[in-house]
């Protein structure tokens, strides 16, 4: 018979502390019944002899130290999952947030996931097409990769996330099941409505699973939202054999919730007040992406985070960059010049793209073309810096051609409409078209055979 405890020591923000507790496990789910009969969910986050600290997923207002009852469930936080979750919308704790009713399944899955044995991992190869030229050609997203998007306050990362969810698809000729798990963490209600409306209008909702945590939801719920989304992704990928793309916005909201709970626990803060275990906590999310040697499914992870004050050395983007395989950086200058999406390609990279592009994957000219576009755009920045000193009229003829190349590259290649979905071939052909702005003698990163065929 399970014990019911009737005495709480104290309530501090989202935390409840108790003493004289027996037989409790770390991470165990707890039911807290308030004096008005409402049951709130929580989990054990600290054990110290006979004292426990419980993190409450809902608002703790109204909880009394004397008139509340607490029951430990003797189980971890689990979700019932089946293929019926496709097309559904859930809240931050995995509860249905639409008119579809409860999800019924004989199997329940721990939201903390199952660690992937490094030996069992398969090296990512195939690419995922986003329909966005700057990403597909130059920062290619590879199936099974972790590729974060570094943004800033006020920039259109939500629009970019919605566009990727609407347009993402596997390479041509693939007949594998593809679906997207989308998690919105700490978003405003109008942003959540924008995401829903965007997916429904694009007829993409039937292959999307949404988890939405609002900005006015309890902070403790925010910590579980990405774990619920990743548990759903793991089920679809490794139980149903599907190819899953996980898109999350915004990881910064998650980290700030982690800092708030850490402060309430009176832990010693680290850089900028974040807990010292921020790196390992983020790794526990990011490392759930990947592919397995004996399983056809895959999880590709595209987290979006806003850099406070556009500071790429801030702890959140800094630690994320250590764990993931590259980054897509949105540029403030491009955004201010009304370019969408404002992808700044020079500090962006995809460390796995070299093994997932080229003949047999995208097109044989893709690797050389990407290298040449990077080199030419880097030269554009040098010429622009020189033009600010001596004036554009005094530049050499070849430098003026680089200025024209840079203008066309930004206006035609980087910039594209919110509804515009380019195939990989269209993107690569556009890259060649823009390179024709420069004389062939400047194309020193290209194989002469490719120049003869495509230039």
Total helical elements: 12
Question: Helix fraction?
Answer: 25-40%
CATH topology annotation of the largest domain: Rossmann fold
Sheet with the most strands, sense and barrel status: 9 strands, mixed
Mean pLDDT: 90
Distance between the termini: 78 Å
Low-confidence stretches: none
Helical/strand content category: alpha/beta
Indicate the proportion of strand residues.
15-25%
The top level CATH class name of the largest domain: Alpha Beta
What would you note in describing this structure?
This is V-type ATP synthase beta chain. It is built from twelve helices and 21 strands. The chain is an alpha/beta fold and 455 residues long. It has three domains: 73 residues, Thrombin, subunit H, CATH 2.40.10; 277 residues, Rossmann fold; 89 residues, no CATH class. α9 packs across α10 and α10 runs antiparallel to α11. The termini are far apart.
Sequence-ordered SSE layout with sheet pairings:
Elements: E1 4-5, E2 10-12, E3 15-18, E4 28-33, E5 39-48, E6 51-56, E7 69-76, E8 78-80, E9 89-91, E10 108-110, E11 127-129, H1 133-138, E12 141-142, E13 149-151, H2 157-167, E14 169-170, E15 178-187, H3 189-201, E16 208-214, H4 219-239, E17 243-249, H5 251-264, H6 278-286, E18 290-291, E19 298-306, H7 315-323, E20 326-330, H8 332-336, E21 343-350, H9 366-390, H10 397-414, H11 424-435, H12 448-454
Parallel strand pairs: 9-16, 13-19, 13-20, 15-16, 15-17, 17-19
Antiparallel strand pairs: 1-7, 2-3, 3-6, 4-5, 4-7, 5-6, 8-10, 11-12, 11-14, 18-19, 20-21
């Amino acid at each position: 018979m399970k014990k019911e405890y009737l005495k709480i020591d104290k309530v501090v923000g989202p935390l409840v502390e108790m003493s004289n507790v027996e037989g409790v496990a770390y991470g165990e789910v707890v039911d807290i019944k308030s004096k008005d009969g409402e049951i709130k969910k929580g989990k054990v986050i600290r054990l110290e002899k006979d004292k426990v600290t419980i993190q409450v997923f809902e608002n703790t207002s109204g909880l009394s130290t004397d008139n509340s009852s607490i029951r430990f469930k003797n189980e971890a936080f689990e979700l019932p999952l089946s293929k019926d979750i496709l097309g559904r919308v859930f809240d931050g704790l995995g509860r249905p947030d639409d008119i579809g009713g409860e999800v019924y399944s004989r199997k329940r899955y721990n939201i903390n996931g199952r660690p992937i044995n490094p030996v069992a991992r398969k090296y990512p190869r195939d690419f995922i097409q986003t329909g966005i030229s700057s990403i597909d050609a130059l920062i290619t997203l590879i199936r099974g990769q972790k590729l974060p998007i570094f943004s800033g306050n006020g920039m259109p990362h939500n629009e970019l996330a919605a566009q990727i969810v609407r347009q993402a698809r596997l390479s041509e000729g693939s007949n594998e099941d593809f679906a997207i798990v989308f998690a919105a963490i700490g978003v405003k209600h109008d942003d959540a409505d924008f995401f829903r409306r965007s997916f429904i209008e694009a007829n993409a909702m039937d292959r999307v699973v949404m988890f939405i945590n609002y900005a006015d939801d309890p902070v403790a719920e925010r910590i579980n939202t990405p774990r619920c989304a990743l548990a759903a992704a793991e089920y679809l990928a490794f139980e149903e054999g599907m190819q899953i793309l996980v898109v999350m916005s915004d990881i910064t909201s998650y980290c700030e919730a982690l800092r708030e709970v850490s402060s309430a626990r009176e832990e010693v803060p680290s850089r900028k007040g974040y807990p010292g275990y921020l790196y390992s906590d983020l790794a526990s999310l990011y490392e759930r992406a990947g592919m397995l040697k004996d399983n056809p499914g895959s999880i590709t992870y595209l987290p979006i985070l806003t850099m406070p004050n556009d500071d790429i050395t801030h702890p959140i983007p800094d630690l994320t960059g250590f764990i993931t395989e590259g980054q897509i950086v949105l540029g403030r200058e491009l955004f201010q010049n009304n370019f969408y999406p404002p992808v700044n390609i020079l500090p962006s990279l995809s460390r796995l793209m070299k093994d997932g592009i080229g003949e047999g994957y995208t097109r044989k000219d893709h690797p050389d073309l990407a290298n040449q576009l990077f080199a030419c755009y880097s030269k554009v920045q040098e010429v622009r810096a020189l033009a600010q000193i001596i004036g554009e009229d005094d530049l050499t003829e070849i430098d003026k051609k680089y200025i024209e190349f840079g203008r066309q590259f930004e206006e035609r290649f980087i910039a594209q409409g919110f509804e515009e979905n380019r195939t990989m071939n269209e993107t690569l052909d556009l890259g060649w078209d823009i390179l024709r702005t420069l004389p062939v003698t400047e194309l020193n990163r290209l194989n002469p055979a490719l120049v003869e065929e495509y230039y």
